[in-house]
Fold each of these.
Amino acid sequence: MISPQPKRIMKIGAIVSPLMIMAVQPVQARDRNVEVTPYLEVQQVLVADLKNGSDVLTYTAVAAGIETSIQTRRAEAQVNLRYERRFFYQDNIGDDDILSGLARGSVQIVPNILALEAGGIATRSRIDIRGAAPSNTVGNIDNVTQVYSVYAGPSLSTNIGALDVNANYRVGYTKVESEDTGILPPGQLPIDIFDDSVSHSASASVGMRPGELPFGWSVGAGYEREDAGQLDQRFEGKYVRADVTVPVTPTVALVGGVGYEDIEISERDALRDVNGDPVIDNDGRLVTDEASPRLLSYDQDGLIWDAGVLWRPSRRTSLEARVGRRYGSTTYAGSLGYQPNENTSLNVSVYDTVSGFGNLLNDNLASLGTSFSSSRNPLSGELNGCAFGQSSSLCFNDALQSAASSSFRARGVNAQLAYSYNGWNAAVAAGYSRRRFFAAQLGGLSAVDGLVDENYYANLSIGRQLDARSSFDTNVYANLLDSGFAGAPNVLALGANAAYYRQIIPGLTGTAAVGLDSFQQDGFDSELTASALLGLQYEF
């Protein structure tokens, strides 16, 4: 029987460095099946501004989507795609289109040896971390833009005698549409907006597990490059390293590695007018001076190392923690995976990486599993900020807190706990991310060089299957954003929504939902909106 709750099922893998290991395995093997569920939705939505004039906005939404899950001997994939057209009744608001979705797939070209991997995401991101933080993206909204990112490439994993041989390559593309940042705090200038980029990532390693030798070892190398259209920015990184694993007890091992890394980030200057000011195009982006020489914004090379401990008391539990030297300073990385039973999972990751906007989204997609567990906002239809799985989880907050064009060093921690039992489903996520931006001192982005922005977030969701034909779910979120710009106040975003689903006849489900969303910023009028929805969904 078709579930009366039209959730979009997703699972996102944790962001981890190549040195980190997520060793918790699913308690049960996945069933082999193929499910394809296309659907149509019609919704009537009301949005009321409770603080700025009590304006009421109504619109009709028509949506089409598809949910596909494939689990066979040779292929694993899940596609979750939704297109929505909104028809507004106000003369000053034009109709709009929203495409959102997540896809991830793997095809075994040579079983258990060579696979082709691919993934894609369509979602929305804030543009400027100093501006508005709307979560209910309805009407003439500011500081929100559409984002697309895809990647594909082969992955090799095999054995040559006692040696483990691994290699992979991926090529990715990321595009950010241009939108208006809206009103910024007094004296604040808009940041430059990311446009698009093509990224490449390749790595290879050979090694041996403990057994024939009293320790395990591996030697590997990697190369990454991202070419961005904005100011012709280029990220290029390469490394070689050797790692060892020394078992101390049957469940504890000491781990460590040493190597050499070279990362260089460069850009061209912006085109300048007769007064020497950067020229900005109609999309709000800086215009590239193609005749400008390359300007170095980040150059770090030298010895890298790390050491730590790995604890695996069972297939259900894995803990790894490392400290080392990388990016010219001390680094910390780690992961915790705990799955005491098939109903509960806990995932924690600590990360530290240098990346660009496109590279970071591609890394997220590459760590995505092929079966998901997450939901959409019942009022907007867009993807919620976090997703949960048994072996790994992820929140998009660090990648989508702003669409700045400059590359950055990203550090943070993410924690997710998911629980389901006897018709109940609950998930909680919390995290912190910190980005330090890089830009050439003589270029058009010099104002953001060394800038540090921070994001604190928390999400809670609870759902319940009431009976064979009805269910409900609730979501609560909070975000505190600190842009790092002098004189720019923090932005606090809070909200909650709830939805009730009722199966009318097989295939046809009715939905009723309400929500309350707000964001506050010192020196600005705070925003508080209430939303309500009635809708029908038909699954074919």
Note: Residues 241 and 299 are 19 Å apart (CA to CA).
Amino acid sequence: MTISWIDWVIVLITILVCFVPALFLAKRSGSSTTEFFASGRSVPWWLAGLSMVATTFSSDTPNWVTEQVRRYGVAGNWQWWAFVLTGIATVFFFARLWRRSGVLTDLEFYELRYSGKEASLVRGFRAVYLGLFFNCFIMGMVTLAACKIANILFGLSPWQTILLTGVLNVVFAAHSGLWGVLVIDMIQFFIKMTAVFAAAWFSLVEVGRRLGNDANGWLGLKLLVERLSTLQVVQGAGDAQPVMSTQNGTGQPILDMMPNFSMSDLALMIFILPIAISWWANWYPGAEPGGGSYIAQRMLASKSEKDSLGGTLFFNIAHYVLRPWPWIITALCSIIVYPDLASIKAAFPTADPTLIGHDSAFPAMLKFLPVGFVGLMIGGLLAANSSTILTHLNWGSSYLVHDFYRRFVRKDAPDSHYVNAGRVSTVVLYVFAALLSLTMSSAQQAFQVLLSIGAGTGLLYIARWFWWRVSAWCEIVAMVVSLVTSLAVPRLMPGADFATTTIVQVGITTLAWLITAFVGPQTDRATLLSFVRKVKPAGPGWTAQRAEAGISDREVAEENRIGTSMIGWVSGCVVIWSSLFAIGNFLYASGDPSRVADAWILTGVFAVSGLVLLSVTRKLWAASEG
């Protein structure tokens, strides 16, 4: 890629605009651990929501989406679209509960909800397990994407990319705390969205030039849809590459937003498993059943229950509606420009061949950006990388310092000591993540590893809010069994695909912790009653405890409004899916007029469900204020 001085000026301006404001927040963030890790619990809903969106828009996200589209067609995105169910459930059932709990981190919740040494054991173990291992694994995925992008665009080696991005991220994460992360996220969100829209547009311009001899984006969209509407993708067996061919029913139509159900193995993996099981059964940061990780961190940092609910709702709508189509359009264009891996390698002969995969097609499309937009995209990619890495450094540091070091190693030091410990831990976390990134090969591989390790634990994280029998031992058993099965099941079932092994893992892990709930040691009565008085959880699973604690059913009903929340959950999911698919059909209509009717029907569904969602949200906001 040729980069002009204008582009470098834009990159510099982008970095300054993103990071300089955070410099002024260091004094406030360093005043206490509450400020450093939770922004003093005073974050408004719009800032919390923007930060969640920016954090989940990392440098690996467009790469991963591109790989799904090239391997499984647009329908491959159901692997993450299904988690709409999880995200909206968090909005209406868990956001207010998290804020009501008053804990600083979601791991502190364990000693609020459970009792005995086992509660402390779970908190301490998960502080290291999630804060170090899981957290660094996710940062490794993001760093791997940055390495692939930098190698394609600039010919940088992985170590050069790691050093360049690492210095920037570590310095600011250690300096500004969560307040700095939130402000940086807010600015970066707008830069990143502008950059990916530019990438999609100029990808269409290139398609127009290639297919219609006219560098026109609207013509490119029309020709793109016309060309791809007749094609299907057939996934090769094992490590074989997917093959494009004319539609004949034996493959997945590229543009279809639903899977070809006659291909049972494909439909099981990309749609049936996610929509039927994964959203409630698998733990994955950013889409955790019951809420958790950095999403819980933002909810806990919100200044009220209302802000917690509003921020999480805004995040889910922006996450699933605003962001996907620019990535998808760029991915579809890449099929025209780079129909296979060999064409990517031919276009970038100096790139490291070991780093080139289908997820490399997204950065490969960026070579068609004109002067000025190249600098914007480089700045946007830096922003995408930083917003995610900064959050994970702060979030992981909060676990290691607040939930492990402060809780079990040194309990009586001044707050300034723990803030400094948090700053040191950010450096350690990034070093581990950088080393781990060098062992990965693709975003899809890392995504499946994370889902596999957390398979079967998700239902537990929902049930603990509604059923007193869920204990710390249930959590211990679930963690151990899910980890063991993630290693053992693929070896015991060597011919099984990922979907099948995941279903087996979910079944074994869920059965194990359910048995523990009935036969294992129980949480002591005093802890359960204290939890009920503080959080006021709903559901029949707490009936006896509420009665003993003197909490009336009417008070719990007014606090939680489960019926209203259920309507909000359903309408929220419909709003997101209908608007997401309406946008897609309007885009497709440029080359396939038959899509117009579907687009308007979906728009009508969106309007009706949107009115219901707005009404429900207003009621819950009013209840939170009251």
Note: The two ends are 57 Å apart (CA to CA).
